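At this stage, I put together one protein's amino acid sequence and its backbone structure tokens, which the following lines show:
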Amino acid sequence: MLLAHFRSNDRGATATEFALVSLLFLSTILFVLTVALILYFTLALDYAASKAARQVMTGAVQQNGTGQAAFKTGIVCPYLPAALACGSLTVNLQTVSEAAQPGGYYAFVNGSATALTMPTLSDAASAFSPGARQSYEYLQLVYPVTVIPGLFAKVLGGGATYNGQPAFLITATAAFRNEQW
């Protein structure tokens, strides 16, 4: 008789169903917001890379004697949104030769030619060479996004770590030839 009473009583069914579905719904919303955040950061980093590349291409960096730290804090970081801390950004600027594979720009592509190689995430290990007139340059900005949950970082193709936290690396690159300034 007691078992039949529980079977016919549905007074908490809606609350139970909502509790079961709400976790999936909230996870979906969080995932969509995470992807939107990464896209925003990627576009902001691309914009900063294009502005910084223009400064190198026109010779402003070379003529002012701008060093790596001043390039990062004075030229790249002002174009980043406040949510991206300048201290976490890795700037890699290198002069490359005009050469066919495996030299030149191909030095920055992985062995299967499917992606760019990632530099070590520290300013001490990155290169800074703005080059001279008519030299070929490769600018790479790498920013580790650590505000996303670790599971989402792995789902989105991350898997890197930055300061012991799971991170999703966003990159912006510019390959160009310096002008005749």
